[in-house]
Amino acid sequence: MPQTSAPAPSSPPPCPTPAAVAFVWPSPVPPDFPKLPGAAVSSTKQTPDGLTIVQFRTATALRQGVLFAVQSLPRAGFALGRGDAEANQADIPFTRATVTGLLRGNAVQACATEWLLAVTKTKSRGTGNPLLPPPPGATPSPLPFGNG
Q1: pLDDT one-digit tens code per residue, 41-56
Q2: What's this model's pTM, rounded to 2 decimal places?
Q3: Which residue from 31, 90, 121, 124 has the fewest beta carbons nearer than 10 Å?
């Protein structure tokens, strides 16, 4: 009797290419911070301690967004910290000069991701690497999740 092999697992169909949506990042997000394809900002808020939180959506898979971010942020001069990823959520900490932040993606559907971008200005230029501690005497980060 001939043996049949199990069918190869199929990958989900690719998400359609999202339409470009024009917007400007609020300060202190650097204007050249890479914009995920098709990003549509839903809200922006500033906290009293200097944290800027931008919420937006993309019509892309979480994986597509993460790959875009980890390729685009270093090209724009951002150092990436040690991120964290699960099946439906990913965190990408970053820093550049006097800006420290985190990009967090939450998969909503196969081709829909909600993003949170949290950015704060730092008083010193830091180490340039979100994996290393700030220099002695630096103020603690107002980010609710630390410096990365």
Answers
A1: 999 999 998 899 999 9
A2: 0.75
A3: 31
